[in-house]
């Protein structure tokens, strides 16, 4: 999936700036190699620390991240900047079942492959009779495990399946009211060195301001809650026709029995994210996240 994401950026640069030469540098991170619980490896930073180091060392000039894989409980590494947020893809979660069976038709005890605690909590909320089973690996690896019979169905991101050319595997998409998406779902961000003005200006031409503002609202909320890869937090911001931003957020216990929901609107993304985080904390989110 990472190479598909980089190819998207390469094509955008080629289309808009044909005079620019682009070399793709493939990297494998500790998060890619690790097959255990991500929290045991230090969380989402396992996907970013090595590429951050390569960027700061000058080995690469631009890094492509999925926003949802960028840690929300720590600042952007010193000396780097998130220079452009690309236009957002579909934010929804989906079910993949080999025979096309929908989630409400699955038998009790059906094994659902997902390691995201946000999905585990919301599965327990809506379909407590199903059994979430941890799974690691990229989307292609997970699909192969499903096809081998290791799982009865998978929960995956719609955008991820689209990026690897497998949207036909989707059985059912979930509305954002049912499965509140992960913060940063469907969004790619381009990271550069802070002092590399030429590259920053070039990359900035690819950015989408609505995606930037929506991401800022979501990640402000996540940062205030100190959310990590082990936090059952969902958040989805959307730009409304009147220019305001709406932010829907959910914090849920892993058994789905305690659910905190907030939905607010504002014109300033930082103000919105702060207000939503405060509303969740008034409901007891910090106790639920401990």
Automatic annotation (TrEMBL):
Q: What class of enzyme is it?
A: transferase
List the InterPro entries hit by this protein, alphabetically: HemC, Porphobilin_deaminase_cofac_BS, Porphobilin_deaminase_N, Porphobilinogen_deaminase_C, Porphobilinogen_deaminase_C_sf
As its record notes, the protein acts as a catalyst of: 4 porphobilinogen + H2O = hydroxymethylbilane + 4 NH4(+)
Where in the numbering of this chain does the Porphobilinogen deaminase C-terminal domain appear? 214-280
Please give the PANTHER family that the UniProt record associates with this protein. Answer: PORPHOBILINOGEN DEAMINASE
The answer to whether the entry has keyword Transcription is: no
Keywords, in A-Z order: Porphyrin biosynthesis, Transferase
Q: Which domain of life is it from?
A: Bacteria
Its cellular-component GO annotations read: cytoplasm
Enzyme Commission number? 2.5.1.61
Q: What is this protein called?
A: Hydroxymethylbilane synthase
């Amino acid at each position: 999936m990472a190479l598909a994401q980089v190819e998207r950026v390469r094509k955008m640069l080629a289309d808009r700036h044909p005079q620019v030469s682009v070399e793709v540098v493939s990297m494998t991170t500790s998060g890619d190699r690790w097959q255990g619980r991500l929290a045991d490896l230090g969380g989402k930073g396992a996907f970013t620390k090595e590429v951050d180091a390569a960027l700061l060392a000058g080995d690469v000039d631009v890094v492509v991240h999925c926003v949802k894989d960028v840690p929300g409980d720590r600042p952007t590494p010193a000396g780097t900047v998130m220079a452009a947020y690309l236009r957002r893809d579909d934010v929804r979660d989906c079910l993949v079942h080999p025979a096309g069976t929908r989630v409400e038709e699955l038998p009790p005890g059906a094994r659902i492959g997902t390691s995201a605690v946000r999905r585990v909590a919301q599965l327990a909320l809506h379909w407590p009779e199903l059994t979430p089973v941890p799974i690691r690996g990229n989307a292609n690896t997970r699909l192969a495990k499903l096809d081998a019979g290791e799982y009865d169905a998978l929960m995956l991101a719609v955008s991820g399946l689209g990026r690897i050319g497998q949207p036909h595997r989707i059985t059912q998409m979930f509305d954002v009211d049912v499965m509140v998406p992960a913060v940063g779902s469907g969004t790619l961000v381009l990271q550069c060195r802070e002092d590399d003005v030429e590259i920053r200006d070039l990359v900035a031409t690819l950015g989408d301001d609505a995606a930037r503002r929506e991401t800022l609202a979501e990640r402000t909320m996540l940062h205030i809650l100190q959310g990590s890869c082990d936090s059952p937090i969902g958040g989805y911001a959307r730009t409304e026709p009147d220019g305001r931003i709406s932010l829907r957020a959910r914090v849920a216990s892993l058994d789905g029995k305690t659910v905190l929901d907030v939905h607010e609107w504002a014109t300033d993304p930082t103000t919105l994210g702060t207000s939503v985080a405060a509303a969740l904390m008034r409901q007891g989110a910090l106790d639920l996240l401990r």
